[in-house]
Write a structure and sequence with these properties.
Blueprint: H1 7-15, H2 27-48, H3 54-62, H4 67-77, H5 83-94, H6 106-124, H7 128-141
Helix pairs in contact: 2-3, 2-5, 2-6, 4-6, 4-7, 5-6
């Protein structure tokens, strides 16, 4: 991979993915990719904080990658979102999902879906610095240390 190129750019180039208008993506499609992106960011931080057993890494990660904590994170970020980001979040939050989290209320699950949609949107629009900045702020706002 070339230096200075994002993973998104590398994937698009390597696999011949074209440009798509993000406004055409359903909020649940954005949440689908956003879930993976959020998980990857948190897993990367956890692994970079110290080499330990896979079980220990998993336990640390699920402390952040769950609907209850994600709902708290997006609540803390509300005033920091741009108008466009807030609209993407609301679309994700209001999307009709046919699944629910095991350990979270319906409201928490919907907020988490909205956060994941926002993460997916920021990732697919190439706004990785903004994505990472919001995740860093969210972790700080909820008082958690990875």
């Amino acid at each position: 991979m070339e230096e200075g190129i994002t993973i998104l750019e590398a994937i698009k180039r390597e696999f011949g993915c074209g440009e798509t208008d993000l406004r055409t993506y359903s909020p649940l499609a954005l949440a689908y990719i956003g879930d993976a992106v959020f998980d990857l960011v948190i897993r990367t931080i956890v692994v970079e904080r110290g080499n330990r057993s896979a079980n220990s890494l998993h336990r640390k990660t699920v402390g952040y990658v769950n609907a209850r904590i994600q709902a708290k994170m997006i609540d803390a970020l509300q005033e920091k979102l741009t108008g466009e980001e807030a609209a993407v979040y609301r679309r994700g939050r209001n999307a009709k999902s046919h699944t629910m989290a095991k350990n979270a209320s319906g409201a928490e699950y919907r907020k988490a879906t909205g956060l994941e949609a926002l993460c997916g949107y920021l990732y697919l629009s190439g706004q990785q610095e903004r994505l990472l900045s919001l995740i860093r702020e969210a972790i700080a706002e909820v008082g958690m240390e990875i």
